[in-house]
Design a protein that fits this description.
Length: 137
Amino acid sequence: MKRRDKKNLQFRYLLWLYKSTKEEFDRIERKFTQVEIDRRLLHYMQEHNDTSKIKRKKEARTFLTNFKEYTDQKEKDGLTLKYEGRKPRPEYYHLSLKLEAIEESIVVELGKKGLRTIKGLYEQEMRRRIIEAQEHQ
């Protein structure tokens, strides 16, 4: 096998490995980043909630209450996925350790530039999926 072909195979495998592990890791971590943003949105909406401009004030307040409950539940779900008591769940710990090992392997096989390339491709793909998602329309 030619050296270039071998490097291509390694790159594709490491790309797949990074992508699949990072997606799983991000499913947990994104709950926390989303909660952070959701709390900021909620704070803004509560501060700027002027129900004098609308007819059904109670219904309008219900939307804020529901959003707060949704945000609280998202945080609770994230904590359950990530922690067991005050310590990381074994599954989460293993996943974060695996991701670190994959990144280290990428650097060994492809260099730091290879790691930047793979991370960039991953981000590009995740953004593409968001933009093309039909369910949010």
